[in-house]
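Hi Y.,

Following your request, here is the sequence exactly as I used it, all 486 residues.
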Amino acid sequence: MNAKTIMKIKPALNRFLQQFDSCFGRSTTRQYLPVYIQGQLSDLSRKSVEPMADAAGIPARNLQEFLSLFRWDQQRLRDQLQQYVARHHSRPDSVGVIDETSFVKKGSRTACVQRQYCGAAGKKENCVVSVHLGYATRDFFTLLDGDLYLPKETWDADRDRCRKAGIPDEVVFRTKIQMALEQIERATANGLRFGWLTFDEFYGRSGPFLRALDQRGQNYVAEIPVDTMLWTKRPDILYKNHCRDRRPGRQKHYPRLKVKNNPPVEVRNILTWSPLLRQQAWKTYHVKDGTKGPMVWKAKHLIVWRADQDGLPGQPHHLVIVRNALDPSEIKYFLSNAPESTPVETLLRVAVTRWTIERAFEDSKTELGMDHFEVRQYRSIQRHLILTCLSHVFLSEFCQRHRGEKSQSDGLPGANGSGETGTVVDHRTALFTEVRPDHQRRFDRYTTAKRQSSALPSPPNDQEITGCRYFSQRHNSLLLESLIAL
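Below is the corresponding structure, written out as tokens. Let me know if you'd prefer a different format.
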């Protein structure tokens, strides 16, 4: 990043933040917005209220009251931010990502804190958990929304404790599934349209969540647990009683499954015993380049059926089973409600996009201080999460504009050093095939092209890996080491 680019940072930030002036009723309150955002974008080692206030030369009390007491509309700020992303980054191949993150906290007075599994610590810990909605396109990704998870037994059942932590009476226990659906509804109400949704197996195991997305006509690629029950052949259904036997007994309900049907089986057993899958050869796909080298998956694909709320088979689904080419014991299962003609490569691309929200969490915590908050009140933490989303959108856009173009191909060299990587998706085209809901499907031909690059020495990887299909979705990390303190 050159000096000219650095000089553009602060004016660009001021223009960006002016779009949200209507969320603040008074200029005396509005003046603290750039102070807070500049503090998150700065090179401070600790980005809590006190260091940011000291760097700006204002009393720390003022910035604390900006989060807790001053009147401004954080919901309006979130809505306007989502509307901004919808105006500037809408793509037919966009992917929404649902995930959660956690913040280790000591004590018992911080809103929503309790001892629970903490992903940041990798074990049970005293922490706060928040559910988030991310958004990703071919060259842009960000956080759109975030809500604190209110535990049921330790918080919702104790309203006195909630009031002491500033949790309004209308904020009650909601499951993480309900919170995710509410965030999706808010984003769509603000003009965002997701070509796809993707999420991990915690959400993928929820039948009500998947059915809610089916009812919305929303395509998804869900990671599912190994004990998910599926049919590999659609079972027959009886719609009325054809038997004339009128002996008394329990009344049977229709429609219902025929007695002589193959039962549903767990997906891990489908991989082991299904003749349809055993006859398939594993296909190799280059997923992405990681810090430890290329990540390569071998995949198999099958059309399956999942039971609805009545125990009957619904629409056909894609089942994609992948395993790590370098560690065959690592196996993942993905389920998708996309049209049957959707290529496996497209489904895998959507599944890979889920890693962008992990990248966004890492950037927000390491670069923006999302986990540095030292406030305890519910409103203060919620405002901090929304302001972090605002900072992340600006940072993502700025890095997108000033990242620059790569001088050579992204493809890995083949075994002969020629740069040949087999079937390649052109990086200049949309990464995802446009797939519409059933009532408005339009199928586009999946486009592939071959990429050439200058000759490079052959890497020590297996020829089968270096010659595999390549569809890496690269999102540069949002590093601020080269940025000056604002």
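Confidence is low (pLDDT under 50) at residues 405-467, 469-477, 479-486.

Thanks again,
Q.
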